[in-house]
Amino acid sequence: MIKKLFVAALAGIFAVPAPAATFIADGYVSGITDVSGPNGAALAAALDAPVSFSIRAEFDDPLKRLFDGSYEAYGVITSMAIGSLDIVSIDAARVAATDPWMSFFFYATTAEGYRVFAEFSFNQLDQSVSPNAGIRLVENNFGGVNRSEARARPAVFTTLQHDVIIPPLVPEPASWALMVAGFGLAGAALRSRARSALA
């Protein structure tokens, strides 16, 4: 009986489900800041800043702490619209976070076969946005030396909402209580076993 309670306590500590996370951003970029490659000018015309964007992403996987102190999770973008670009497909989204900064990388494909990269980094404490945040339009030729791209930044946010919560480094009070109960049950089990051996 004691062993079962001990196992249940440990399961409660390590099997706490993480809530699904969402990220919503609305804003715009005001101008082309960088053009490269032989078709960069055409991409800049296609990007046609100022461009408004609207992104909503759902992350079902819990954030996991990595060895370098950062976090990452994968999810699916439920909706994405960037200016007048015709988005025909949306790939997986990746979020990597280092406390307190969190960076998002969103990928989408246009009807012309271009790849859209929406990149945003913001500080969770004061909600400030990195000046490098913006949108890239890249010709779908990632392996060749003639890859062309155009960048528009910085991004200005009109709406920014997120509930992606970085797991705390210190356990919550409920986790402490389960840990204490688990250690107590382990001690009781060892004490009972010692008494049985002496008898």
What would your notes on this structure say?
The chain is of the alpha+beta class. It has 2 domains: 2-11 and 172-198; 19-162, no CATH class. Helix content is 24%, strand content 42%. The protein is built from 3 helices and 12 strands. The chain has helices spanning 2-14, 40-47, 173-198, and strands spanning 21-29, 32-36, 51-59, 64-65, 71-82, 87-90, 92-98, 101-110, 115-123, 134-138, 149-152, 155-162. Strands 1, 2, 3, 4, 5, 6, 7, 8, 9, 10, 11 and 12 form a 12-stranded antiparallel β-sheet that branches. A hairpin with a 4-residue loop joins β8 and β9. α1 (2-14) packs antiparallel against α3. The longest helix has 26 residues, at 173-198. The mean pLDDT is 76.
Helical residue percent band: 10-25%
Taking pLDDT < 50 over at least 5 consecutive residues as the criterion, the unreliable ranges are none
Described by strand count, sense and barrel closure, the largest sheet is:
12 strands, antiparallel
Indicate the mean pLDDT: 76
**Percent of sequence in beta strands:** 35-45%
- The strand count comes to 12
Structural class: alpha+beta
List keywords for this structure.
alpha+beta, 199 residues, elongated
